[in-house]
Amino acid sequence: MKTIGIDVDGVIRNFHSQLLLVARILNPKLKVINDFSDYWLKDAIALSREELRQICHHSHPRQVFVDAHSYEDNVLFLIELMNRLPDYEFVAITAAGGYNNEHLTYEWLAKHELNFRRVIFTSGDKKGKEKIDLLVDDSTANYKSWCKRREDIGNFLIMDRPWNQDCDANRIVNLGDLLKGEYVLAGNSLDAHKLQRSYDDIFKI
Ligand SMILES: [Mg+2]
């Protein structure tokens, strides 16, 4: 059985917009720019990465990790994939754990009816150590770590977001693209033909 790792924040959970919203509510005097392109919102609000981490991991984790909206198209597509591809193991792989906040991500996944076989909590730079055949992630830094640890760099797919435009990994714009042969064929680790059939079926092509 092949394993597909799906990062949570930035792929299926809209962590960035929610963190910005909570930060704005907590700091009403700070100017906020919604159109940001830095992973840690450097160009959106004058709060440091540490201050933002304090909000999401310590002071207001529930407001960030449970109340965040989904990227709805990706969630709907993923549910379809999980139902239709029982031969593949889908695992959530996320750095949102730690600080006794893991239950909040389980709660968010349950709220969105996402039944991952497993949820792996690990830091972004260690995702390449896990036994997964393909990873969808939104972090340029995580791609660089993946490349240092593994030879199958084509099996890291970057989810197109404003904050990863500097990343030269294979790029997808939604999880539907996951099933297009040019991506899943990387390393020949997945059954691209079977996935493509499912893609066609789901979208009635
Ligand atoms: Mg992410």
| CATH fold name of the largest domain | Rossmann fold
Q: List the domain count as a whole number.
A: 2
Number of helices, counting only DSSP H or I runs of 4 residues or more: 8
The CATH architecture of the largest domain can be named as: 3-Layer(aba) Sandwich
- Could you say which overall geometry the principal axes of the C-alpha atoms support? globular
Q: Spell out the CATH superfamily of the largest domain.
A: HAD superfamily/HAD-like
Instruction: Give the beta-strand count.
Output: 6
Q: What structural class should be given to the helix and strand makeup?
A: alpha/beta
**Major β-sheet strand ordering:** 3-2-1-4-5-6
Strand content: 5-15%
**Unique ligands:** magnesium ion
Provide mean pLDDT, rounded: 87
Largest beta-sheet details:
6 strands, parallel
The end-to-end span amounts to: 27 Å
Top-tier CATH class of the largest domain: Alpha Beta
Report on this structure.
The protein is 37% helix and 13% strand. By secondary structure, the chain is an alpha/beta fold. The protein has 2 domains: 2-13 and 69-202, HAD superfamily/HAD-like (Rossmann fold, 3-Layer(aba) Sandwich), CATH 3.40.50.1000; 16-65, no CATH class. It has helices spanning 15-26, 49-59, 61-65, 72-84, 102-111, 140-149, 181-184, 192-202, and strands at 2-6, 88-94, 118-121, 134-137, 156-159, 170-172. The protein is globular. The model is unreliable at 182-190 (pLDDT under 50). Strand 2, helix 5 and strand 3 form a beta-alpha-beta unit. It is built from 8 helices and 6 strands. Bound molecules: magnesium ion (MG). The site of magnesium ion has 6 residues, from loops.
